[in-house]
Specification:
By secondary structure, this protein is an alpha/beta fold. The protein has helices spanning 5-17, 40-52, 54-64, 107-125, 133-143, 159-173, and strands at residues 35-36, 68-75, 83-91, 94-102, 145-146, 156-157. A hairpin with a 2-residue loop joins β3 and β4.
């Protein structure tokens, strides 16, 4: 696995997210929690999703019982409209993924987008054979489909993640 600048940054973020000073910014104030962010707005959206959506709550609870740790952040730039999960590493009995989501004006739509990406993290949690980029691609060739993207590189999606995002949005809409 190549050590790219993005992976180095994520490693440093993981150290920060698990330090005692950062626990106030971890989701649920739990330093061992499986969803980590340093973005206060995302932290609020995670809490809102847990409070208001049974689907979102099930996804988070499944991740809590897994070996998958999610680093969540907002994507920069005005053109960002969706989300993307990338595999970082498998080390020390945990598998680390990075989720970037666009900063959207609607909190409900952004929570639904986070739910979509968390469903992808659950798909990884359910597939212990996923331990790197290659095994992730093989798993999505099996359970998902190629998704057209404007950015370079291969991108996959799954019907389960699409449905999870829509269901979170329905939950939030009442």
């Amino acid at each position: 696995m190549t050590l790219t600048p993005a992976r180095i940054v994520l490693f440093v973020l993981s150290l920060i997210a698990t330090s005692p000073a950062a626990t106030a910014q971890t989701f649920d104030d739990d330093p061992h929690h499986h969803i980590r962010t340093t973005d206060r707005r995302l932290l609020r959206l995670l809490r809102d999703g847990l409070r208001s959506s049974d689907t979102f709550r099930r996804l988070v609870n499944r991740l809590r019982r897994s070996d998958v740790v999610v680093f969540l952040e907002c994507a920069g730039g005005e053109r960002a409209t969706g989300g993307r999960l990338t595999f970082i590493s498998a080390v020390g009995g945990y598998r680390y993924v990075h989720v970037r989501v666009a900063r959207l004006p609607s909190a409900d739509v952004q929570i639904a987008l986070i739910g979509h990406e968390l469903r992808h993290a659950v798909e990884i949690a359910d597939a212990p054979s996923v331990v790197d980029d290659s095994s992730l691609a093989r798993e999505y060739e099996r359970i998902g489909y190629l998704s057209p993207r404007l950015s370079p590189g291969v991108s996959f999606d799954s019907a389960a993640a699409v449905e999870a995002g829509y269901q979170v949005l329905r939950d939030l809409s009442g």
